[in-house]
Amino acid sequence: MPYVITRLAHALKPGGKILFRDYGRHDLSQLRFKKGHCLFDNFYVRGDGTRVYFFTKDEIHNIFTSAGLNEIQNVRDKRLQVNRRKKVAMQRVWIQAKYQKPEQHS
Question: How far apart are CA 48 and CA 92, in angstroms?
């Protein structure tokens, strides 16, 4: 992922922003994975073959700032979602961030 963010940062105009939202560590979907689905730490494969990674705020901060972007926002969005029909409460966790390419000064 650092390679992709570096490429995006290079393509941004000065002052341009990247908005990021993805799974956070300890999201319900991470906790539901069964043994044998973990490829590496916090990196899993679903039954259909797609891969999913569960981020921390620090990981996102390091990836984006290493690409030369300035942090505007980096939050852990934790929500309790309730399925009233099934009477199930689900703890969901996302990392939501905004980063900006510095303005060029002449």
Answer: 21
List the one residue out of 40, 53, 46, 72 whose CA is nearest residue 1: 53
The label of the residue with tokens 């966790």 reads 93
- pTM here? 0.84
Distances from the Cα of 46 to the Cαs of 16, 23, 58, in angstroms?
A: 34, 14, 25
Q: Taking a C-beta distance cutoff of 8 angstroms, is the pair 20, 105 a contact?
A: no
Report pLDDT digits (tens) over 2-60: 899 999 999 999 999 999 999 999 888 888 888 888 888 889 898 898 999 999 999 99
For residue 65, the Cα-to-chain-centroid distance in whole angstroms is: 14
Q: Which amino acid is at 46?
A: R
- Identify whether the C-beta of residue 102 lies closer than 8 Å to the C-beta of residue 9: no
